[in-house]
Write a structure and sequence with these properties.
This protein is an alpha+beta fold. The protein folds into 3 domains: about 10-110, Butyryl-Coa Dehydrogenase, subunit A, domain 1; about 135-250, Beta Barrel (Butyryl-CoA Dehydrogenase, subunit A, domain 2); about 260-400, Butyryl-CoA Dehydrogenase, subunit A, domain 3 (Up-down Bundle), CATH 1.20.140.10. About 45% of the residues lie in helices and about 15% in strands. The chain contains 12 helices and 10 strands. Strands 1, 2, 3, 4, 5, 6, 7 and 8 form an 8-stranded mixed beta sheet that branches. The protein starts with 11 loop residues before the first helix and ends with a helix. About 40% of the residues are buried. Keywords: FAD, Flavoprotein, Oxidoreductase. Belongs to the acyl-CoA dehydrogenase family. It holds the Pfam family Acyl-CoA_dh_1.
């Protein structure tokens, strides 16, 4: 893999998909955002998003990773990563809607294989078609990295002819919650994990967000300034047994399923955003005049951008190497931890230098480089902190011979 700020691909299929995606992101989608005045701080509505879901589906991008039976193209992980990288590098506000990251097929994850025919027809197939949206509700205020300490409880309810569960709890950081129709909620089964030595059992449910006893509230605004998070508050919310995903007690396995793959697939989007930051920085250093010459002529600046490019190349190379191994059917738990750790930390260092080089512009709200700095900083915490990744690497190494 060679270094480039505009990657090309030897594989004709990947090259064709990337080129078509770039055309859409830089052309039609850019025009759509400009016409509607959409920025990263905009409170997005379904009216903003549904046209993008539908158009992305028409172009074959929405859910493109899915098997052909669901209208996808059964992409390899490496091909999907190339598309996710372009999404991150585009600078488009709504780019997260194009492949289905925000409330769409990518957000639903691997639950298709756990769904019943009724769940597929009612929830997941409309989701794939861009007609419905979902959020994933796992995190709680005191249950982030340690998700098994969650307090949301599911109580079996079979009284008066009912066959279902009563859910009570408070979920936070439910991305896409402000415009979702239903949530994938993980809850602890009542009566389990309440005494020392008693192992908790968790189940996953499809919860309609307009159900009695379910309330969607404005979530905390993350440092990126985006309004895409919600709290999902459940108070004795009845969920029919038909909405149980998989078997009772299998919720954590479903929630954390394909965790290695998902950890890896978060990296290309961040790499794309970092690539864009490097491009913006190079543009700045070529046009900014200092003492009658471009900023890039100063050796101190040359060394900074050289280090930035080198770290990006290293992070991108290791990520795609791990994805290629995954495509070959190999297990890559250590590599996934390493990629998440190195991409998060190196991307942050690159963005920190980008802000430094941009000077006042890098500190000014409303500029893209300042937004990217805030966005990239979050990745050191989201989807598992850097400390959690280090724990994972050490644990894998401890059992290697």
């Amino acid at each position: 893999m060679t270094f480039s700020l505009h990657p090309a691909y030897d594989d004709p299929r990947t090259a064709e998909l990337v080129e078509r995606l770039r055309d859409y992101l830089d052309g039609e989608l850019a025009d759509y955002e400009r016409e509607r005045g959409i920025t990263h701080a905009t409170r997005l509505t379904r009216a903003d998003l549904e046209p993008v879901w539908r158009r992305s589906r028409e172009l074959g991008f929405y859910g493109i990773h899915l098997p052909e039976e669901y209208g996808g193209q059964n992409l390899t992980y490496t091909r999907l990563a190339a598309l996710k990288e372009e999404v991150g590098a585009s600078g488009r506000v709504l780019s997260h809607c194009v492949l289905g990251d925000m409330g769409g097929p990518l957000r639903a994850g691997d639950i298709l294989k756990h769904a019943t025919e009724r769940q597929l027809s009612t929830y997941l197939l409309p989701l794939i078609r861009g007609e419905r949206a979902c959020c994933f509700s796992l995190t709680e205020t005191d249950a982030g990295s340690d998700v098994r300490s969650m307090r949301t409880v599911a109580v079996r309810d079979t009284g008066d002819g009912r066959d279902g569960y009563r859910l009570t709890g408070h979920k936070v950081f439910s991305s896409a919650g402000p415009f979702a129709d239903f949530a994938i909620v993980v809850a602890r089964m009542a009566g389990t994990g309440e005494r020392e030595g008693d192992k908790p059992r968790f189940s996953a449910f499809l919860v309609d967000l307009d159900s009695p006893g379910c309330r969607v509230e404005d979530g905390a605004t993350p440092m990126s300034g985006e309004h895409i998070e919600s709290d999902v508050v459940l108070q004795d919310c009845y969920v029919p047994a038909a909405n149980l995903l998989g078997e009772e007690g299998a919720g954590m396995r479903i929630a954390l399923g394909r965790v290695t793959t998902n950890r890896l697939l978060h990296c290309p989007t961040v790499l794309g955003a970092t690539r864009r930051a490097l491009r913006l920085t190079l543009d700045r250093t070529r046009t900014r005049q200092v003492a009658g010459q471009p900023l890039l002529m100063l050796q101190a600046i040359q060394h900074k951008v050289a280090d930035m490019a080198t770290e990006l190349y290293a992070a991108r190379s290791m990520t795609y190497a791990a994805l290629a191994a995954l495509d070959q059917g190999r297990e890559v738990p250590a590599e996934a931890f390493m990629c998440k750790l190195f991409v998060a930390e190196s991307a942050f260092r690159i963005l920190d230098q980008a802000v430094q080089i941009h000077g006042k512009e890098g500190l000014t709200q409303g500029t893209e480089i300042e937004y990217l700095f805030r966005k990239i900083r979050m990745f050191r915490v989201l989807t598992g902190t850097s400390e959690i990744q280090r724990n994972g690497i050490a644990k894998v190494l401890a059992f290697q011979h």
